[in-house]
Amino acid sequence: MENEIKNLRKAASRIKKAIEDKERIVIYGDADLDGVTSVIILRETIKNLGGETSAIYFPDRESEGYGISTEGLEHLKSFSPAFLVALDCGIGNFKEIKLAKKIGFKVIVIDHHEILDKLPEAEIVVDPKQKGDKYYFKGLATAGIVFKLSEILLNNIFTENLRENFLELVALATLADMMPRENENESFIEGGLFALENSWRPGIKIFFTTDYLRDYLTPGQKVSKMISILNVRDVENKLPASFRLFTSQSLAEAEKILEKLIEKSEKRREKINEIIKEIEERIQKGKECIIFEGDTNFDFTLISVVASILSQKFEKPAFIYKKLKEESQGTVRVPAGIDSVSLMKKCKKYLTSYGGHQQASGFRLKNENLEKFKKCLISHFKK
Question: Under DSSP, is residue 84 helix (H, G, I), strand (E, B) or coil?
Fold first, then answer.
């Protein structure tokens, strides 16, 4: 069927079965806004169906890398045997999904990232970019896919209130992940922006009941400001701030979290400018076709923004990484028309892991391979 994402109904039936059979359900989500909102939508959908989630896990990208990690599985081991749903990650975690199965997890992957050479050995894979998926639109954020999954799962109990309540999260995720503003995304954003200002969620309401957004006139400007705050890294008990904020139970609790984020946001801006200034000084000397820079001092949580700004400013692919003891963990942003994932695919022999979208992706590699990876990228990019 062309009007449906491949395996979406299959995933809905499997989740329903897990709820009916009272299987333990574990949700594993990426820690960015798309991952966090996807986790919240699925968790609340399961709750509305009378089920419950045994555990939620968000990996720390700096220490664990991107996606499902061995540390994450180790942390969740005590819940096995269980049904594990990976959201906004997993499509490139071949080894980790094998390990998850060995531990006793039955795995479903719901993702929207580019497919690498093959699919992971999960029970079900939902990704509009996989082979054989005839769905007309490939540009959904994971939150958009999970919203469509919830429509199937909740069916006749999907009330208008619940719909709006999920749409506001989908709109935030779609805009934060810079998905194309066309087709379904357009209606998700439109419906979501309308719902945001009337939200019942304390963590969203707080933005509109304080003076915080008063200088921003249009809904679009307000949401951009919200996203920049929600992207500030602040983890407590392994839960990102955006998750704690959107699931907070009162305005007072939400205000505390928001105040902390605003304070951190100011410092974050200063640090971003420092890193950019340092990189610009370095690249003045060379005339390379890509920006490839890293340091042990770079704050991993800021390098995505740095790469974005540099890529736009110099109109070149930007590969920015944080150098750890033995490995480096990096992020990639490229100008429109360049596919960062296929560029890295050509140099994958130097990488431990990689993946993402055409214009925004990430990588991890041993430090001894940094120079080789850089040279390989330059030679393929020139071609």
Answer: strand
